[in-house]
Amino acid sequence: MPKSNSVTKDDDRQMLLVKWKDGTTSEIAWKTLRDNCPCAECAELHGPADPLRLKLAPNTSLIEINYVGNYAVQPRWADGHSAGLFTWNYLRDLAGIMPAPQ
Ligand SMILES: [Zn+2]
């Protein structure tokens, strides 16, 4: 089994593939990632409704995804946004699976 979690991106299907160190894999749509970006700037977008649609829909095209230490990954989007750090447990949450035991 691999020693650490890893991610690869599937450009054709616009999915992030996560290989967990327990040998299982998950797929998370790029749009799901962007919609759930945990940074402060996006938290505002996720906030109160925007009935007049003054806010632009975020770009969901993933350019690259980088590892941050061994605890998180950081996607960079086509519009230049890269402030969001996704911890592995947060990715598990988005993938709909239980957090890894500590
Ligand atoms: Zn963000």
Q: Radius of gyration in whole Å, from Cα?
A: 14 Å
Provide the helix percentage.
10-25%
The top level CATH class name: Alpha Beta
Strands in their spatial order, largest beta sheet:
1-2-3
Class of secondary structure makeup: alpha+beta
Mean pLDDT: 87
- CATH fold-level name: NE0471 N-terminal domain-like
Strand content: 25-35%
When the domains are counted, the total is 1
Order of helices and strands: EEEHHEEEH
Instruction: List low-confidence stretches.
Output: none
**What is the 3D shape?**
elongated
Total strands: the figure is 6
N-to-C CA distance: 18 Å
Number of helices: 3
List bound small molecules: zinc ion
- The second-level CATH architecture is 2-Layer Sandwich
Major β-sheet profile: 3 strands, antiparallel
Question: Would you mind describing this structure in some detail?
Answer:
This protein is α+β, with helices and mostly antiparallel strands. It has a single domain (6-95), classed as NE0471 N-terminal domain-like. It has 3 helices and 6 strands, in the order βββααβββα. A hairpin with a 5-residue loop joins strand 2 and strand 3. The longest helix has 8 residues, at 88-95. The mean pLDDT is 87. It binds zinc ion (ZN). Zinc ion is lined by residues 37, 39, 41-42, 81, 83-84.
